[in-house]
Amino acid sequence: MISVLFVDDHEMVRIGVSAYLSAQPDIDVIAEADDGTKAVKLALDLRPDIILMDLVMKEMDGIEATKRIINEWPQAKIIIVTSFLDDEKVYPALEAGATSYMLKTSKASEIAKAIRATYEGQTVLEPEVTGKLMSKMRKNSQAPVLHEQLTEREKDVLRLMKQGKSNQEIADELYIALKTVKVHVSNILGKLDVHDRTQAVIYAFNQKLYE
Question: Which GO terms describe its cellular component (predicted)?
Fold first, then answer.
């Protein structure tokens, strides 16, 4: 079972989505919160597999809650689920450490699919979000050929990351150890000057690599 903490300040949203998720044979909504302060405490106490995080809430917003959770628990997997798509919300949320980004207009079945994919180590981004992030990274990019520093094996790993493969799936496809994949991913992040694999994948899209 994939344990889930659902954070949203709209009770009806929580009721509807939680009911659907709880009906899934592999997903268990173990707790809910209606603000960021409660979310941080529950996340650190319960250590759920996945945290569904709203952005705009009373007491503490989702960006600050994500930062605090990641600071105390770097392995946390947080999916932002929000109505907002502007740059002021999207980029800071992912920079704070969110793994995936979904819109509240997504069907509950799509959120369930995102939960499973994120649990497996993949990054899930709505197409509209990908476009926003690509635009943002173009504006911020000062060295558009950073990927030329990558070794051939690192390029292989980045290509598979872009396809949404988890570390284990990359290891299986390239016939290398999982530990070796993790080293390659760490090297890729350093050479591309990004904070996490989500930003590495966005960089690959931005530079139109492996198309």
Answer: cytoplasm
